[in-house]
Amino acid sequence: MREWQRLGHPLPVYFTVEELSMPPTYFRLSFNQMENARIILYGDDPFAFLKLSDANLRHQAEYEPGAS
C-alpha cells in the first residue's frame, strides 16, 4: 500500500458486508462512485443487494466541495 500511495494513488477503502448493508444517509456520492467503479476480485457483488437512496444526493452535491 505504501508504494501504491507513493505513486500518487489514493488508498482503497474497505467495507464489510455488514457495513454496506446499512449505507449511511449521507455520503451518497461516495457510495455512487464505489458502485460505478467497483471491481469484484473475489466472492459476491455486495452492491447487488444494496438499496441506495438518492434522498440526500442533491444536498451533498450542493454542499460538498468539488462534488458537482
Alpha plus pi helix count: 4
Structural class: mainly alpha
Helicity level: 25-40%
Radius of gyration: 14 Å
Structure characterization notes:
- With 68 residues, this protein is an all-alpha fold.
- The model has no long low-confidence stretch (mean pLDDT 75).
What keywords describe this structure?
68 residues; flat; 4 helices; mainly alpha
In short:
With about 70 residues, the chain is mainly α. The chain has helices at about 1-5, 15-20, 30-35, 55-65.
Could you outline the blueprint of secondary structure elements for this entry?
Layout: H1 2-6, H2 17-21, H3 28-37, H4 57-63
